[in-house]
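Format notes (please read before filing issues)

Several people have asked whether sequences and structure tokens are stored in separate files. They are not. Every record keeps both together, in the order shown below: the sequence lines, then the token lines. Line labels are part of the format and must not be stripped during preprocessing.
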Amino acid sequence: MERIHRIMLASVHIFQPEEWEWLTNQFSSIDEMLRAPTLLSGLESRIQRFSSLDRATMEQELNRIMNRKDISILLWGDDGYPALLKEIPDPPLALFVKGRHQVLNEPQLKIGVVGSRKNTAYGSYAVQKIVTPLARQGVAIVSGLAYGIDALAHKQAIEEKSTTVGVLGGGVDHIYPMAHKDLYRRVSEEGCLVSEYLPSTRPLPRYFPRRNRIISGLSHGVLVIEATAKSGSLITAQCALSQNREVFAIPGSIQSIYSEGTHRLIQLGAKLVTAHTDIINEFPWIQTHFDFQSSASLTDLETSEQIVVSAIREGTGHFDALLEHTGLQAGQLNEILTMLTLRGIVSQNETEYRLLRG
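Then the structure lines:
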């Protein structure tokens, strides 16, 4: 079957992968398919739905899309179709990608980051503490370009010059929300924008729960940062679990409604995360594929930071021992260790700090 007809069958969201594959292999064109009702036992209702569509208009639009240089179309079965999506139970048959579609198959760790659209200052801090060092070390950040945690995660990936992927609940030609016009452009430049819907499709509420399975499907694991008890982020976490992905959650205050969802995930078995290494350590294969050395130069450290780094290098890794060794105040030492962690110079394993470089 011609590629444009394969795309047309894929983009109507009527057929399952095995049905679509059978149809595209069985028939040379859509017209031939519609002329062979006796061969379509079990598919009659879906074929009828398809035949009722305005196929001429759809074909005209697809021809226009296929001639665009800024959008790639990846079909189930294509060599460039994301390998991670092939693993999930209900993969999209077609992906419309704006930007560098090659990043979807690059062999780096990919972490989906989701959370509240009305994040608190604590949520912003968590993004800085966890997502920033992940991005600095080359981890690709996948999210949904929504307000709040999504936007902060994308921005940190861009600032750290890492790959970022935005999965949309509408076509890749529709910027939503409009306030993210510049972020939309930057994500398409630093990575790509992805949707299973035709580029002209306007975002609708019912599309967003479906797009969440693609966020988790494109990721090796999903990190939830702030979520209410009924947050849409929990849908992404549920998708991740059904796809056999790792689920991570950041704890918060028991007084905050934005921690109810993450605490529930932890109760159900999600890994509690307090440092980016909690995530990296779940993927031992990563050390054989990537160099996780920080680009930060140790010669650029302030005097107090150099004292702390020297103490850790000499084997003083516990916080109390560092207090005694350096003579610093607890608050000052905590601030220095936080900054060194965010810059990818040290990491924390339970109660002990160690150098990542130097």
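For reference, the curators noted about this record: DSSP finds 16 helices and eleven strands in the chain. The CA atoms of residues 174 and 323 lie 53 Å apart.
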